[in-house]
UniProtKB/TrEMBL annotation:
<dbReference type="InterPro" id="IPR020574">
    <property type="entry name" value="Ribosomal_uS9_CS"/>
</dbReference>
<dbReference type="GO" id="GO:0003723">
    <property type="term" value="F:RNA binding"/>
</dbReference>
<dbReference type="InterPro" id="IPR023035">
    <property type="entry name" value="Ribosomal_uS9_bac/plastid"/>
</dbReference>
<feature type="compositionally biased region" description="Basic residues">
    <location>
        <begin position="111"/>
        <end position="130"/>
    </location>
</feature>
<dbReference type="GO" id="GO:0015935">
    <property type="term" value="C:small ribosomal subunit"/>
</dbReference>
<dbReference type="InterPro" id="IPR020568">
    <property type="entry name" value="Ribosomal_Su5_D2-typ_SF"/>
</dbReference>
<keyword id="KW-0689">Ribosomal protein</keyword>
<dbReference type="InterPro" id="IPR000754">
    <property type="entry name" value="Ribosomal_uS9"/>
</dbReference>
<dbReference type="GO" id="GO:0003735">
    <property type="term" value="F:structural constituent of ribosome"/>
</dbReference>
<dbReference type="GO" id="GO:0006412">
    <property type="term" value="P:translation"/>
</dbReference>
<dbReference type="InterPro" id="IPR014721">
    <property type="entry name" value="Ribsml_uS5_D2-typ_fold_subgr"/>
</dbReference>
<protein>
    <recommendedName>
        <fullName>30S ribosomal protein S9</fullName>
    </recommendedName>
</protein>
<feature type="region of interest" description="Disordered">
    <location>
        <begin position="99"/>
        <end position="130"/>
    </location>
</feature>
<dbReference type="GO" id="GO:0005737">
    <property type="term" value="C:cytoplasm"/>
</dbReference>
<dbReference type="Pfam" id="PF00380">
    <property type="entry name" value="Ribosomal_S9"/>
</dbReference>
<keyword id="KW-0687">Ribonucleoprotein</keyword>
<comment type="similarity">
    <text>Belongs to the universal ribosomal protein uS9 family.</text>
</comment>
């Protein structure tokens, strides 16, 4: 698969990230902006780069990402999963490393819907005994 573009999709909550890996020097473009510009928090940047750093390939690929929906943390986790899936598609031998790091496991938690007769999903209105 050398010299080829690899695409993968990652999801988290309502965020969806489409990740494209291209052989390069380690440049990032998230919605046409740099990684540090799009994710100003260092925790989000580290979380996004984790799969590449785990297999020490952070300077061998250029990463282009289109991400929409959700908030910053959901988007960062969606990009992380998409990146891990793209790396596995590039090299199947990385699957065990990605699996053990938890990068391929989809976090299925979503916001619980609001129920009728309640102010929020689980919260109750104040109870008055008298």
């Amino acid at each position: 698969m050398a010299g080829k573009n690899v695409q993968a999709v990652g999801r988290r909550k309502t965020a969806v990230a489409r990740v494209t890996l291209t052989p390069g020097k380690g440049e990032w473009a998230v919605n046409t902006r740099s990684l540090s510009e799009y994710f100003p928090r260092p925790t989000h940047q580290q979380r996004v780069e984790q799969p590449l750093r785990e297999v020490e390939l952070h300077d061998q690929f250029d990463v282009r990402v289109r991400v929409h929906g959700g908030g910053p943390t959901g988007q960062a986790d969606a990009v992380r999963m998409g990146l891990a899936r793209a790396l596995v598609e590039h090299d199947e031998d990385l699957r065990s490393v990605m699996r053990s790091g938890g990068f391929l496991t989809r976090d299925s938690r979503k916001v619980e819907r609001k129920k009728p007769g309640r102010p929020k999903a689980r919260k109750r209105f104040q109870f008055s005994k008298r």
